[in-house]
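From the shared-data thread, chain only:
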Amino acid sequence: MRAYAGPEALEEASRMKIDIDPLGGEAVSALVNKFYASPKEVIDRMARAIRP
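Structure, as tokens:
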């Protein structure tokens, strides 16, 4: 997460008008687990939506 704190990254984010608010490992893990707990139909639909 330190890479996001670099001055170049912060300057580019400011120029792009986006916030940088990275999640820690535990939060990411909880989010992934929540996604995988979704019904199979929802997961399949999401997978189709993000495929190129």
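Residues 23-52 form one domain.
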